[in-house]
Amino acid sequence: MFTKWLTGGSLTRDKSEAPPRGACAPKSAIASGSGNGHDSGAANSRVAGRALLAGVLCVALAAASGCSLLPKEDAEEVLPTINPPKLSKKPEYTVKTETLTTKVRGSGKLMSLTEDDVYFVEDNKRIKELYVKPGDQVQAGQLIAELDVSDLETQLRQKKLQTRSEELKMIELLRDPGERSAEQVEQAKIDFELKREELVTLQESIAKAKVTAPISGEIVTVYYNKGDMSKAYEAVATVADLTQLTVASTITQEDLKKVAVGMEVTVDINAAGQHKGKVKQLPNPNKANQNQNNGMYYDPYNQNRQKDTIDQYLVVDLDQMPENAARGTPLSVEIIVSKKENAVTIPLAALRTITGRNYVQVVDDAGTKREVDVELGMQTSTAVEIVKGLTPGQKVVGR
C-alpha cells in the first residue's frame, strides 16, 4: 500500500503525458528531445528512492509485528545475598577475688537422741497381746507386750507341787537320816537344790514373757502384730524421747574422710527451711555400714528388722531446732570441709592443661592474646584458685 502511495502519482502522470498511439509528437517536444531524457531519469531516481524507503518501512514493521508474536520472557530471578558464616567468639572471663568453699552433701532425717527398742528374749513364742500403738505416750516400766506362755504356767504349777513334795522329804531326811551316810545325805541335798533351780528357771521364763518400756517417751514404731511368733532380741517396738531431737545424716565413705567434728553445716529440713549447725558426732564405723535405706529398716512384711540407732549416723547440732519439728522428717545437709577467703579465681572453663602444664590465654584491651602459666590452689566444681600468674581485673579466654 505504501509503495503504491509512493509511486502511484508518478506512474499516472507519465501515462497521461504520453501521446496517443499513431499521433505525432509536437514540434516543441521533438525539438527538446534531449531535455526530456534528463527529466525521465530524474523521475526514475525518485521512484527508486521511494521504493527503497517503502521497503525499509515494511521490514521495520514486519520486525516489530514479529517480536510481538513471540512469548514473553520470564523476569530475571533475584537471588538472596549469601553472607559467609561468622566464627563464634570464645567467651572472655575477668579474673576476680572471692571466697571459695568446698562442700560435701548428704541426706538424713530428724531423730531422737534418746530412743530404745523393746524386745523379747524368748524365741518362737506367740505374741499374746500388744498394749500400745504408734503415737502412745508411755512411762518407764509400763507394760508394752506379752507372750502366750500358758504351757509354761501349767508346768510351773506342777513343778511347784513336785518341789513342795521334795522339800517335805528333805526335811524328814534331815531329821532322821537313818542308816544313810553323810555323803548320801549331802547328795540328797544337791538333788533337791537342782529341782528348786528348775522351778526358778521356769518362773524367770514366764516373767520374761512380758516386756516394759525402758524409758519414758512416745511409741514411734511397732514392728509386730498380735499373734505373730516372737524372735529373740528382735525389736517389737521403739520408744523415743521426742523432746531431744537432732539431725542424723548419712554421707558416702569417701566424703566422710574429709569431715571432722566442729565443721560448719547447712541443714535444709523439709517444710522448715535452712538452718545452721555444726558436726557433733561422726558415725560409728562398725555400725555405719549397716545403715541402709537412710536408716529405715522396717518393711511391711517384717522380713528385715534391724535396730536403727543414732550412732549409725553423722549427728549435727543445730543452732536452733525449728518449732514443731517431728521425728523422721527428711532433710539434706551441706558440710563445708574447706574454705578460702580473698582467693584469686577464674572459671574452670578458662583453665587449659597439657602434659602437666597449667596455663591460660590472657587478652589485653587491644585484643592481643598471650599464654601465661599459672599455679593452682583450691578448686571447686566451677572455679579454681590461681596462686601465681594472674592478678584481679585481667581477662582470660575460655576454651
User: What is the chains' assembly state?
Assistant: single chain
Number of beta-strand segments: 20
Helix coverage percent: 25-40%
The H/E string reads HHHEEEEEEHHEEEEHEEHEEEEEEEE
Structural class: alpha+beta
Tell me the β content. 25-35%
Return Rg in Å: 60 Å
Can you give the mean pLDDT?
Answer: 81
Low-confidence stretches: 1-38, 292-303
The tally of helices reads 7
Shape: elongated
Main β-sheet, spatial strand arrangement? 2-10-13-12-11-14
For the biggest sheet, the summary is:
6 strands, antiparallel, barrel
The rounded distance between the terminal residues' Cα atoms is 88 Å
Describe the structure.
By secondary structure, the chain is α+β, with helices and mostly antiparallel strands. 30% of the residues lie in helices and 31% in strands. The protein contains 7 helices and 20 strands. It has helices at 2-17, 27-31, 33-69, 150-175, 182-207, 253-256, 285-288; strands at 92-94, 96-112, 115-119, 127-130, 137-138, 143-147, 210-212, 217-222, 235-240, 245-250, 264-269, 273-281, 314-318, 330-347, 352-354, 357-363, 369-373, 375-379, 383-388, 395-397. The strands form 4 sheets. It has a 6-stranded antiparallel barrel with strand order 2-10-13-12-11-14. Strands 1, 15, 16, 17 and 20 form a 5-stranded antiparallel beta sheet that branches. A hairpin with a 5-residue loop joins strand 16 and strand 17. Helix 1 (2-17) runs antiparallel to helix 3 and helix 4 (150-175) runs antiparallel to helix 5. The longest helix has 37 residues, at 33-69. It is elongated and about 195 Å long. It starts with a helix and ends with a strand. The relative contact order is 0.16.
